[in-house]
């Protein structure tokens, strides 16, 4: 899950070295905190939040397979 | 031996595209016409794409190329004096190659924990990546194609960032796109009938641009209704109104 978010984020931003993903485990729910360079916020969120929504969709699909819940938070 | 199947409005157009993809002269490619294609009524209803199968000839055998070439190509076929140009499978595969889209999709699926096989093909000028994931296919498609569309969006975003000129890919899983297309066309007809009998406008659920287009196209020749997209961003849908006489 972590690698998935990292891969997508790094592929979309101008500063891939600034991409950071922290995993907060909490029982059946996993929280992924994605941190990117301030200038890249728009890239990972997208118009109408479409990119962020798509990343969450992919995470949910992967989580469904593993029978867990995953929440993606994009932090500044 | 490298073979590709290509579609086009006419057999000639399909052959031209095939040659571009294979990056080979006409005489080095054996062409089989799979579908002649037809214009259909008004060039719209019932029109069928022409489909050809183009096979790159590995060894230069002028005879093989000529037999079918003469039909469409006014160009003379290989002359004996022309030095045979080495055509390797590698080159043709590189021309068709693994597109950036396919590689990105493979990586994404791997990271998502799915085992899937991906095949790519050309449909007209669209690159279609077909995913075969067995029993995981339903998860990958998601409700009303949500996961599939998310996947397609992310792949295209990533590819567009890497190279501005990449052409968008269409991702399909076990023929889902075609089934959805048929379902949407049926829906369009049902809603149009409802609009006509009730004399009121009816609307669809929110649809993607490609899906809205399908509804518009399905009803464009229906003189009794008008279609219009309404709403903003992800909530955009199509309104079907009875046309007042």
From TrEMBL, chain A:
One of its GO terms (cellular component) is cytoplasm. It comes from the Bacteria. Keywords: Cell shape, Cell wall biogenesis/degradation, Chaperone, Cytoplasm, RNA-binding. InterPro entries: KH_dom-like_a/b (IPR015946), KH_sf_prok-type (IPR009019), KhpA (IPR020627). The keyword Cytoplasm applies. GO terms for biological process: cell wall organization; peptidoglycan biosynthetic process; regulation of cell shape. It is found in: Cytoplasm. Transmembrane segments: none annotated. It holds the Pfam family KH_KhpA-B. GO terms for molecular function: RNA binding. PANTHER family: RNA-BINDING PROTEIN KHPA (PTHR34654:SF1), UPF0109 PROTEIN SCO5592 (PTHR34654). NCBIfam families: PRK00468.1, PRK01064.1. A probable RNA chaperone. Forms a complex with KhpB which binds to cellular RNA and controls its expression. Plays a role in peptidoglycan (PG) homeostasis and cell length regulation. Belongs to the KhpA RNA-binding protein family. HAMAP family: KhpA. Forms a complex with KhpB. This is RNA-binding protein KhpA. It comes from Candidatus Abyssobacteria bacterium SURF_17. The gene is khpA.
UniProtKB/TrEMBL annotation, chain B:
Residues 65-85, 223-245 are annotated as: Disordered. It is found in: Cytoplasm. Residues 178-244 form the R3H domain. Residues 67-80 have a biased composition (Polar residues). It holds the Pfam family Jag_N. One of its GO terms (molecular function) is RNA binding. One of its GO terms (biological process) is regulation of cell shape. It comes from the Bacteria. Keywords: Cell shape, Cell wall biogenesis/degradation, Chaperone, Cytoplasm, RNA-binding. One of its GO terms (cellular component) is cytoplasm. Residues 5-55 are annotated as: Jag_N domain. PROSITE patterns: R3H (PS51061). InterPro entries: Jag_KH, Jag_N_dom_sf, KH_dom, KH_dom-like_a/b, KhpB, KhpB_N, R3H_dom, R3H_dom_sf. Has an N-terminal Jag-N domain and 2 RNA-binding domains (KH and R3H). A probable RNA chaperone. Forms a complex with KhpA which binds to cellular RNA and controls its expression. Plays a role in peptidoglycan (PG) homeostasis and cell length regulation. HAMAP family: KhpB. Forms a complex with KhpA. This is RNA-binding protein KhpB. The gene is khpB.
